[in-house]
Amino acid sequence: MVNAIKGLFISCDVPMAQFIINLNASLPTSQKFIIHILDDTHLFVQPHVAEMIRSAISELRDQNSYEKPS
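-> structure tokens emitted (70 positions)
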């Protein structure tokens, strides 16, 4: 018998995958969203968290960007 789960496939570099894994680990058990870690650069997650992941990545990029002083 085949079990199918609807999800979102994420392909990224290793540091971004680790960021997403750490984001998942920081949530309570009832809110964890990673279905399966396929390898170092591929994750399978619940589809409803796409916008939350995008928002967290955007915040990370904003914190790590350099603005030249005026």
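The mean pLDDT is 93.
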